[in-house]
Amino acid sequence: MFDNKFPCLDVTELIAVRINKNTFTESMNRQKMETKCWKCFGVLQDEKVRFQEKQYHPRCYHCDICKKSLQNQICHEEGGKLYDKGCFNLLQQDKCSRCKTLIKSNGQTYRGKSYHEECFTCQSCRASLAGCRFHEDDGKFFHEGQCYESFNAYICNQCRQQINGNDIEFMMFQGKYFHNKCFACEECHQSLAGEKFKIMIGRRYCNRCR
Fold first, then answer.
1. I want to staple 192 with a disulfide (CB 3.0 to 4.6 A). Which of 106, 107, 197, 203 is the partner?
2. 108 and 86 share one domain
3. What is the distance between the alpha carbons of residues 94 and 151, in angstroms, rounded to a whole number?
């Protein structure tokens, strides 16, 4: 069950030796890094900078974003990278869910997502949604009322205009929507809504005309 590297030790002593061996290895690795830069892993000479028990070449001790020297500056470390105060604060700010850039001020939050105020706008009229009632549809925002109704309105296949709330008389034929007045005979132009009609060479005609 156990190896025979330590035949004179009982189980308790064997476990203790193994733990001490790992601790010793970790200690040796740290001692090796004390002679090397934690950023470039090059050998350290006489000049070096120490930060949080780690040492760097002076040329390596800089912000990973703006590349400015961190000597005599407030330094932050995150994920093994170094940042000056300004760059670190930018990293902590939210990114806009629409344009994907950092939000420095005047942000809006909706359902856990952040937006620039100028990005949090109606998809239809482009005006700001701040302080307004609105609807979300497939990730797009619309002011409540006309903007949202226009977005959801059917389009007449004949005149290509919206079929909105004021146009209550409309119909569907072969999966396409029409105003009643637009679904008409090609010859006399009378509405065919609710009437029998014929289709000849792709054109609609009432029974009186054909």
1. 197
2. no
3. 30
